[in-house]
Structures are given as structure tokens and as C-alpha cells.
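Methods, example record. To illustrate the input and output format used throughout this study, we show the complete record for Protease HtpX homolog. The sequence lines were provided to the predictor; the line carrying C-alpha cells was produced by it.
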Amino acid sequence: MKTRFKPDRGLTGRMVATGFLLGLLYVVFVGVLIALTKSAFVAVVIAAGLLFAQYWFSDRIALYAMRGHVVTPEQAPELHGVIDRLCALADMPKPAVAIADSDMPNAFATGRSPSKAVVCVTTGLLRRLEPDELEGVLAHELSHVAHRDVAVMTIASFLGVLAGLMTRLALWGGVGRSRDQNAAVVVMAVVLVSAVVYVLSFLLTRALSRYRELAADRSSAELTGRPSALASALTKLSGDMSRIPTRDLRQAEAFNAFFLVPVRAKGTSIASLFSTHPTLERRLDQLAAISRQLGEQG
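The corresponding predicted structure is encoded as:
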């Protein structure tokens, strides 16, 4: 799909590299599991079915989990108006528009393809942002759709889920129940291989996630011509996130990689290596640099 969002070769290269490495990792993972235990193949087939369901219904799953619902232009005329203008400016198909009834100020895009994409914002975000800030946020989310990185992230994140599932199956079904020493060795080998695969896939997807957020910030700033508006929105939303109840933050953490700003429950800290997002300072520095390049004042 060609749009006026500039192609990001860095993002494309990282998506291809991540997909290739995860695919290779997946093949090795399946081969080792089948070699270790006869039942692994069945589990992998089941997991592959779950992957297909997650990919095909990712938009519905995410909306359901966030209590979001698609809205019509009559129900949300201002929101639709902003997205209409941005899609015309970017020369791209208009995605479905949704609102999640949550005070947590955030936004996300989901869907397996541009024609099946959904851009969702929370009521908390709509209450907090000025029109130019909202435009910057929505341009950020539309760039995810245009660059197709949402679908890549959906698939990339699944291998880690599969490895975690295999670890649990091995632990529940083998270590404590088997008195056969050889069987116990096989179970522990499955656990070890699954753990290594989980760690590698975790690091690969986190690295891709951080870069794609920077790429979307860049694309938003260049399309709207107002980097300061997005910078203001990021600063405001990141600051207000600390006022959200811990319970609500913990419930939303599973979708962190897809949010505009990261959700972190109070009392936890995540090293930058394991974060789904670059630091706020890194994002603001990039937007400031783009602002200088565009000759924006103030």
C-alpha cells in the first residue's frame, strides 16, 4: 500500500530481519521439541492454530480486551473528522474508528492489514488532549497501519507465547509426575529449550517495538508538520498515567507493545533493554530534532 507516509527503510529492514530470525528460531524450536518428545508436535499444531486465530481476529481480540467499540461518524464526529483529514493527507484508506471507555489515556492500532485495521482511542485520551495534540497521536497510529508493523508485531510476539506455553505444559505434565529418570531429563530439556527461545524472542520483539515507536513518531511529525504537538501529547499522557489506579494499569500491561505510551504499574521498573517503548526523553529529543529540521518555531 503506497501512502504519503514516507517509507522507513530502517523499520522495513528490522521487520524483515526480526521475521527471519524468529522464523528460524521457530523451526529450530519445533525440531528440538519433536526430537525430545513425541507429544510436542501435537502441542505445536495446537499452538499454530492459536497463532492463526490471533492473527485473523487480532483486531477483535484487542478491542474486546480494552472494552472498545467501533463508532460511527454520527457518534464521534470530531474524532472521525480528524482521521478523515489525516487519511486524505496521507492518501490511505480509512481504518475503522473505535473508542474504549477507560480513563487510562492511550491509543493503539490493530488489525492484520490496512483494510482490516482499527484505530482506537480511550475516553481518557479524548478528555485530555487539545485538537492539534490529538491529530499528532492519530497520525502516529495511522503510520503503524501504513507501515504494516502491527501485523508483524502480532506474529512476532506469538513465538514467545508459544515457548511459555510449552514450558508450562512440560512442568505440569512431567517433572512432578514422572518417576522415570529419562522422562524427567526430557522434560527439563524441553523447559530449557523453551526458556532460551522465550528470552531470544522477547529481546527481538522488544527491540523491534522500540524502533517502530520512534518510526511512528517520525512519520507523524513529518505528515502533520507539527512535531511539537505530538511532543506535548506524549508529555501530557505520560505524566497523567501515574494517576491511573494500579489495578487498571496491570490489566492493560499485556497490550503494552501496541499502546502509544507504555503502561507501567506503580512500584515496578523495567530496564530499557526489556521495555516495549523508547524513553520519553529519547522520543522528545527526536521530535525536537525534526522540529529544527522543519524550521518550526517555538
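Annotations derived from this record:
The two ends are 35 Å apart (CA to CA).
Residues 266-270 have pLDDT under 50 and may be disordered.
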